[in-house]
Amino acid sequence: MKAINRRQAFALGGGFVLLTLMPMAADAEVTNDAAKWIEKFTGGKQPAKGRISLDLPEIAENGNTVPLSINIESPMTAESYVKDVMIIADGNPNAGVATLSFTPMSGKAEASIRIRLATTQNVIAIAKMSDGSLFTEQKTVKVTIGGCGG
Amino acid sequence: MADKPRIKLPKEAAKGEVIQIKTLVSHVMESGQRKDAQGKTIPRKIINKFACEFNGKPVFACALEPAISANPYIQFDARIDEAGTFKFSWTDDDGTVIAAEEKIALKA
Q1: pLDDT of residue A77
Q2: B18 chain-A contacts, CB cut-off 8 A
Q3: Are strands B18-24 and B73-79 parallel, antiparallel or unpaired?
Q4: Gap between the Cα atoms of B64 and B61, Å rounded
Q5: What is the rounded distance in angstroms from the CA atom of residue A43 to the CA atom of residue A144?
Q6: A59-62 and A134-145 as β-strands: parallel, antiparallel, unpaired?
Q7: pLDDT by residue (tens digit) across A5-52?
Q8: What residues in A contact B57, CB-CB < 8 Å?
Q9: Chain-chain contact of B68 with A116 (C-beta, under 8 angstroms)
Q10: Choosing among A37, A74, A82, A106, which should be mutated to test the B contact, i.e. which has the most B CBs within 10 A?
Protein backbone atom coordinates (compact mmCIF):
# COMPACT_ATOMS: atom_id res chain seq x y z
CA MET A 1 0.00 0.00 0.00
CA LYS A 2 1.22 3.46 -0.91
CA ALA A 3 2.08 5.74 1.96
CA ILE A 4 -0.27 8.70 2.37
CA ASN A 5 1.29 12.10 1.84
CA ARG A 6 0.66 15.09 4.03
CA ARG A 7 -2.03 16.64 1.83
CA GLN A 8 -4.03 13.43 1.62
CA ALA A 9 -3.77 12.94 5.32
CA PHE A 10 -5.30 16.38 5.87
CA ALA A 11 -8.11 15.68 3.44
CA LEU A 12 -8.86 12.42 5.20
CA GLY A 13 -8.83 14.04 8.60
CA GLY A 14 -11.15 16.80 7.40
CA GLY A 15 -13.54 14.25 5.98
CA PHE A 16 -13.58 12.46 9.28
CA VAL A 17 -14.45 15.56 11.21
CA LEU A 18 -17.27 16.35 8.80
CA LEU A 19 -18.62 12.83 9.00
CA THR A 20 -18.70 12.78 12.75
CA LEU A 21 -20.30 16.20 12.97
CA MET A 22 -22.86 15.70 10.24
CA PRO A 23 -25.43 13.45 11.90
CA MET A 24 -25.73 15.70 14.91
CA ALA A 25 -26.17 18.85 12.85
CA ALA A 26 -28.75 17.12 10.67
CA ASP A 27 -30.68 15.91 13.70
CA ALA A 28 -30.77 19.35 15.26
CA GLU A 29 -32.21 20.89 12.12
CA VAL A 30 -34.69 18.31 11.06
CA THR A 31 -36.06 16.87 14.25
CA ASN A 32 -36.01 19.63 16.77
CA ASP A 33 -39.65 20.07 17.29
CA ALA A 34 -39.52 22.61 20.12
CA ALA A 35 -42.24 24.75 18.54
CA LYS A 36 -44.51 21.73 18.22
CA TRP A 37 -43.99 20.76 21.88
CA ILE A 38 -44.75 24.29 23.02
CA GLU A 39 -47.82 24.54 20.80
CA LYS A 40 -49.15 21.26 22.17
CA PHE A 41 -48.60 22.31 25.78
CA THR A 42 -49.92 25.86 25.54
CA GLY A 43 -52.67 25.25 23.01
CA GLY A 44 -51.44 28.29 21.09
CA LYS A 45 -51.72 30.69 24.03
CA GLN A 46 -48.86 33.08 24.63
CA PRO A 47 -47.26 32.50 28.04
CA ALA A 48 -46.32 35.53 30.14
CA LYS A 49 -42.81 36.14 31.48
CA GLY A 50 -42.15 35.75 35.18
CA ARG A 51 -42.95 33.80 38.34
CA ILE A 52 -40.50 31.07 37.35
CA SER A 53 -36.95 30.95 38.51
CA LEU A 54 -34.95 28.57 36.40
CA ASP A 55 -31.52 27.68 37.65
CA LEU A 56 -28.98 26.23 35.23
CA PRO A 57 -25.22 26.64 34.94
CA GLU A 58 -24.14 29.30 32.42
CA ILE A 59 -21.47 26.97 31.13
CA ALA A 60 -21.88 23.21 31.32
CA GLU A 61 -18.61 21.35 30.96
CA ASN A 62 -20.33 18.04 30.49
CA GLY A 63 -23.58 18.01 28.54
CA ASN A 64 -24.38 14.55 29.86
CA THR A 65 -25.45 15.79 33.27
CA VAL A 66 -26.51 19.38 33.58
CA PRO A 67 -28.21 20.20 36.89
CA LEU A 68 -31.51 22.02 36.50
CA SER A 69 -33.55 23.52 39.33
CA ILE A 70 -36.87 25.20 38.94
CA ASN A 71 -38.97 27.13 41.40
CA ILE A 72 -42.32 28.70 40.65
CA GLU A 73 -44.03 31.29 42.80
CA SER A 74 -47.38 29.92 43.89
CA PRO A 75 -49.34 29.52 47.12
CA MET A 76 -49.84 25.82 46.21
CA THR A 77 -53.30 25.58 47.76
CA ALA A 78 -56.27 23.65 46.38
CA GLU A 79 -57.56 26.92 44.84
CA SER A 80 -54.34 28.07 43.24
CA TYR A 81 -51.40 25.87 42.39
CA VAL A 82 -48.94 25.04 39.64
CA LYS A 83 -50.24 22.13 37.61
CA ASP A 84 -47.71 21.20 34.95
CA VAL A 85 -44.32 22.45 33.99
CA MET A 86 -42.80 21.52 30.68
CA ILE A 87 -39.07 21.77 30.09
CA ILE A 88 -37.81 22.06 26.51
CA ALA A 89 -34.31 22.16 25.04
CA ASP A 90 -34.29 23.81 21.63
CA GLY A 91 -30.98 22.36 20.40
CA ASN A 92 -31.31 18.70 21.32
CA PRO A 93 -32.23 15.98 18.80
CA ASN A 94 -35.59 15.83 20.57
CA ALA A 95 -36.89 18.99 22.14
CA GLY A 96 -38.69 17.36 25.07
CA VAL A 97 -36.84 17.09 28.36
CA ALA A 98 -39.43 16.53 31.07
CA THR A 99 -42.92 17.45 32.15
CA LEU A 100 -43.35 17.91 35.88
CA SER A 101 -46.80 17.57 37.42
CA PHE A 102 -47.42 19.16 40.80
CA THR A 103 -50.42 18.96 43.11
CA PRO A 104 -51.39 21.06 46.14
CA MET A 105 -49.80 18.25 48.18
CA SER A 106 -46.41 19.14 46.71
CA GLY A 107 -46.33 22.09 49.12
CA LYS A 108 -43.88 23.98 46.90
CA ALA A 109 -43.59 24.10 43.13
CA GLU A 110 -39.95 23.26 43.21
CA ALA A 111 -37.92 20.47 41.64
CA SER A 112 -34.41 19.54 40.56
CA ILE A 113 -33.39 17.14 37.83
CA ARG A 114 -30.31 16.46 35.74
CA ILE A 115 -30.56 16.79 32.01
CA ARG A 116 -28.61 16.09 28.83
CA LEU A 117 -27.75 18.88 26.42
CA ALA A 118 -26.28 18.04 23.01
CA THR A 119 -24.92 21.49 22.33
CA THR A 120 -25.08 25.14 23.38
CA GLN A 121 -28.74 26.04 23.39
CA ASN A 122 -31.73 27.51 25.20
CA VAL A 123 -33.58 25.66 27.89
CA ILE A 124 -37.19 26.78 28.15
CA ALA A 125 -39.65 26.17 30.96
CA ILE A 126 -43.37 26.77 30.64
CA ALA A 127 -45.64 26.50 33.67
CA LYS A 128 -49.37 25.95 33.56
CA MET A 129 -51.29 27.12 36.64
CA SER A 130 -54.49 25.61 37.97
CA ASP A 131 -56.45 28.58 36.57
CA GLY A 132 -55.00 27.94 33.10
CA SER A 133 -52.61 30.89 33.01
CA LEU A 134 -49.17 30.29 31.52
CA PHE A 135 -45.73 31.52 32.48
CA THR A 136 -42.38 31.03 30.83
CA GLU A 137 -38.69 31.49 31.46
CA GLN A 138 -35.60 30.55 29.50
CA LYS A 139 -31.85 30.24 29.99
CA THR A 140 -28.99 29.79 27.56
CA VAL A 141 -26.47 27.13 28.50
CA LYS A 142 -23.05 26.90 26.85
CA VAL A 143 -22.09 23.28 26.48
CA THR A 144 -18.42 22.32 26.21
CA ILE A 145 -18.84 18.58 25.65
CA GLY A 146 -22.17 17.52 24.19
CA GLY A 147 -24.32 14.88 25.77
CA CYS A 148 -25.76 13.78 22.45
CA GLY A 149 -24.17 10.35 22.75
CA GLY A 150 -21.84 8.75 20.25
CA MET B 1 -31.25 -2.10 37.23
CA ALA B 2 -31.46 -4.46 40.10
CA ASP B 3 -30.16 -1.78 42.40
CA LYS B 4 -32.57 -0.43 44.94
CA PRO B 5 -33.57 3.16 44.32
CA ARG B 6 -32.11 5.61 46.80
CA ILE B 7 -34.60 7.86 48.53
CA LYS B 8 -33.83 10.52 51.09
CA LEU B 9 -36.49 12.14 53.22
CA PRO B 10 -36.88 12.97 56.91
CA LYS B 11 -38.23 10.27 59.25
CA GLU B 12 -40.73 12.65 60.77
CA ALA B 13 -42.19 16.07 60.11
CA ALA B 14 -44.40 18.60 61.87
CA LYS B 15 -48.00 18.86 60.67
CA GLY B 16 -48.17 21.15 57.66
CA GLU B 17 -44.42 21.12 57.14
CA VAL B 18 -43.05 21.02 53.60
CA ILE B 19 -40.30 18.45 53.31
CA GLN B 20 -37.79 17.83 50.57
CA ILE B 21 -37.51 14.40 48.94
CA LYS B 22 -34.50 13.30 46.92
CA THR B 23 -34.60 10.21 44.75
CA LEU B 24 -32.04 8.48 42.60
CA VAL B 25 -32.47 5.30 40.62
CA SER B 26 -29.82 3.41 38.66
CA HIS B 27 -30.72 3.26 35.00
CA VAL B 28 -28.78 3.62 31.74
CA MET B 29 -31.37 5.97 30.19
CA GLU B 30 -30.29 4.89 26.71
CA SER B 31 -31.35 7.82 24.55
CA GLY B 32 -31.87 5.99 21.26
CA GLN B 33 -29.48 8.47 19.64
CA ARG B 34 -26.26 6.59 20.16
CA LYS B 35 -24.72 4.10 17.72
CA ASP B 36 -22.79 0.96 18.63
CA ALA B 37 -19.38 -0.05 17.18
CA GLN B 38 -21.10 -1.49 14.08
CA GLY B 39 -22.90 1.79 13.45
CA LYS B 40 -26.29 0.42 14.42
CA THR B 41 -28.52 2.59 16.55
CA ILE B 42 -28.80 1.39 20.13
CA PRO B 43 -32.53 1.18 20.84
CA ARG B 44 -34.03 3.65 23.28
CA LYS B 45 -34.51 2.39 26.82
CA ILE B 46 -35.37 4.96 29.44
CA ILE B 47 -37.50 5.52 32.50
CA ASN B 48 -40.35 7.46 30.94
CA LYS B 49 -42.42 8.17 34.04
CA PHE B 50 -41.82 8.84 37.69
CA ALA B 51 -44.63 9.21 40.18
CA CYS B 52 -44.92 9.80 43.91
CA GLU B 53 -48.06 9.21 45.97
CA PHE B 54 -48.76 9.84 49.62
CA ASN B 55 -51.47 7.71 51.23
CA GLY B 56 -52.83 6.99 47.76
CA LYS B 57 -53.00 10.63 46.64
CA PRO B 58 -50.69 12.00 43.92
CA VAL B 59 -47.99 14.36 45.17
CA PHE B 60 -45.67 14.74 42.23
CA ALA B 61 -45.16 13.12 38.86
CA CYS B 62 -42.75 13.59 36.04
CA ALA B 63 -42.78 12.49 32.41
CA LEU B 64 -39.21 11.91 31.33
CA GLU B 65 -37.70 12.13 27.85
CA PRO B 66 -34.34 10.82 26.57
CA ALA B 67 -32.80 14.18 27.52
CA ILE B 68 -32.72 13.08 31.16
CA SER B 69 -29.29 12.00 32.38
CA ALA B 70 -28.40 8.43 33.23
CA ASN B 71 -29.29 7.40 36.79
CA PRO B 72 -32.10 9.94 36.97
CA TYR B 73 -32.04 12.16 40.03
CA ILE B 74 -35.29 13.83 40.94
CA GLN B 75 -35.79 16.19 43.84
CA PHE B 76 -39.14 17.66 44.83
CA ASP B 77 -41.20 18.70 47.86
CA ALA B 78 -44.21 17.39 49.70
CA ARG B 79 -46.47 18.92 52.35
CA ILE B 80 -47.11 16.62 55.29
CA ASP B 81 -50.56 16.87 56.91
CA GLU B 82 -50.67 13.39 58.41
CA ALA B 83 -48.46 10.37 59.04
CA GLY B 84 -48.39 7.91 56.22
CA THR B 85 -46.57 6.17 53.43
CA PHE B 86 -44.97 7.52 50.30
CA LYS B 87 -45.08 5.28 47.27
CA PHE B 88 -42.59 5.88 44.48
CA SER B 89 -42.61 4.31 41.05
CA TRP B 90 -40.34 4.48 38.05
CA THR B 91 -41.77 3.10 34.80
CA ASP B 92 -39.39 1.73 32.18
CA ASP B 93 -39.98 1.80 28.40
CA ASP B 94 -40.30 -2.00 28.50
CA GLY B 95 -43.14 -1.76 31.01
CA THR B 96 -41.29 -2.85 34.13
CA VAL B 97 -41.87 -0.73 37.21
CA ILE B 98 -39.35 -0.09 39.93
CA ALA B 99 -41.29 0.59 43.10
CA ALA B 100 -40.34 1.77 46.57
CA GLU B 101 -42.04 2.88 49.77
CA GLU B 102 -41.05 5.17 52.63
CA LYS B 103 -42.90 5.93 55.83
CA ILE B 104 -43.09 9.24 57.59
CA ALA B 105 -44.36 10.02 61.10
CA LEU B 106 -45.72 13.23 62.62
CA LYS B 107 -43.57 14.96 65.18
CA ALA B 108 -45.04 14.61 68.64
Answers
A1: 93
A2: 107-108
A3: antiparallel
A4: 10
A5: 35
A6: parallel
A7: 766 665 655 555 444 444 444 444 444 888 999 999 999 899 999 899
A8: 103, 105
A9: yes
A10: A106
User: Count H helices, E strands: chain A?
Assistant: 2, 9
pTM, whole model, 2 decimals?
0.81
C-alpha separations of B18 from A50, B67, B80 in Å = 24, 29, 6
CA atoms of B29 and A65, how far apart (whole Å): 12
CA triple B54-B56-B58, angle to 5 deg? 65
Q: Which residues of A touch B62 (CB under 8 A)?
A: 98-101, 111, 113
Q: Are B45 and B96 in contact (CB under 8 A)?
A: no
- Is B94's pLDDT higher than 80? yes
B interface mutation test: which of A105, A119, A123, A143 has the most B CBs within 10 A? A105
Q: Do A93 and B77 touch (CB under 8 A)?
A: no
